[in-house]
Amino acid sequence: MKDFPKLSVQRLFEEVRAAGYAGGYSRVRDYGFSWRFDGNIVV
Predict the structure, then answer these.
(1) Which of 3, 6, 15, 31 is most exposed, with the fewest beta carbons within 10 Å of its own?
(2) Long-range contacts of range 27-33, CB-CB < 8 Å, 24 or more positions apart?
(3) pTM attached to this predicted model
(4) Phi-psi bin for 20: left (phi > 0), alpha (psi -120 to 50), beta?
């Protein structure tokens, strides 16, 4: 996420899904939001 600060959560989900991630969108969304709220990503 640090390398791609403007990456949307939906796009991140699509990328990890293509890499074999079997989890759901909400887990990826929560992870993405945690980065934004920690100040690691400028929205």
Answers:
(1) 3
(2) 32/1, 33/9
(3) 0.64
(4) left
Q: How many CB atoms lie within 10 A of CB 28?
A: 19
User: Domain map of the chain by residue range?
Assistant: 1-43
- Which of 41, 32, 37 shows the shortest CA–CA distance to 3? 41
pLDDT in tens, 17-30: 999 999 999 998 88
Structure-token pair, residue 6: 């403007």
**Residue carrying structure tokens 């759901």:** 24
Closest CA to 41 of 12, 2, 11, 8: 2
